[in-house]
Design a protein that fits this description.
By secondary structure, this protein is of the alpha+beta class. 26% of the residues lie in helices and 13% in strands. The radius of gyration is 22 Å and the shape is globular.
């Protein structure tokens, strides 16, 4: 079985599994401070008779400067040369790669929070036992409700790493046999590897131990 060149996997999946390739992603540029559309609406409100007191000129200029700088910041580059597949077809795609293309070793699963695009990307790294370069399969799920079918039932080695992605990034994997946190405790609120997670240094200031009094 010949090795696949870069981009070849995507072409094979398009040919043999129609409909599995996800459509191109359009950025929403949320940046944790609201969407671009919200920015547009806020700008419009400032020029259409808003009755709230106007901010001081210096504050307003600084705020607009920061907003302008943020809106012009280059977006991170997404890799679309690899196969980016729709979430619900992932088990089918990985089974196809193992049984038809010989990628029998799932090395690891990683996740990336693309705040500017409003998605969590989960990447599956696969290799052939006999050697050669690996292939990556990517799935992009919306940050507000990232759900990807678990592949643990068909690939038991994914068990721990799916739990890590749930614990740290909040990705849900329906079908996982033990969908629990790994590093944080079950009562912990939030997912600390997300870019907008509120944290100061090593302190999770929003969390209070049981019995700890609220500060006034």
């Amino acid at each position: 079985m010949s090795l696949l060149s870069k981009g070849e996997l995507r072409a094979i999946l398009e040919r043999d599994l129609p409909g599995v390739i996800a459509p191109p992603l359009r950025p929403t540029r949320t940046n944790g401070h609201g969407s671009h559309q919200q920015d547009v609406q806020e700008d419009a409100a400032e020029t259409t008779g808003d009755t709230t007191p106007a901010p001081r000129d210096s504050d307003s200029a600084a705020a607009k400067g920061a907003k302008s700088q943020e809106s012009h910041r280059p977006l991170p580059q997404l890799n679309d040369d690899d196969a980016v597949v729709v979430a619900e077809r992932l088990p089918e795609v990985l089974s196809f790669m193992r049984e038809r293309l010989g990628y029998q070793y799932l090395s690891h699963i990683t996740a990336v929070d693309y705040l500017e695009y409003g998605v969590i990307e989960v990447i599956y790294h696969l290799f052939r036992i006999e050697g050669g370069p690996g292939q990556m399969v990517r799935v992009r799920a919306p940050r507000e409700n990232p759900v990807i079918p678990s592949i643990t039932p068909i690939w038991p080695g994914a068990n721990l790493q799916e739990r890590e992605a749930w614990d740290l990034y909040g990705v849900q994997f329906p079908g996982h046999p033990y969908h629990k946190r790994v590093y944080m405790w079950e009562e912990f609120e939030g997912h600390p590897m997300r870019k907008d997670f509120e944290k100061i240094g090593d302190a999770y200031y929003h969390f209070k131990w049981k019995g700890e009094e609220e500060e006034e």
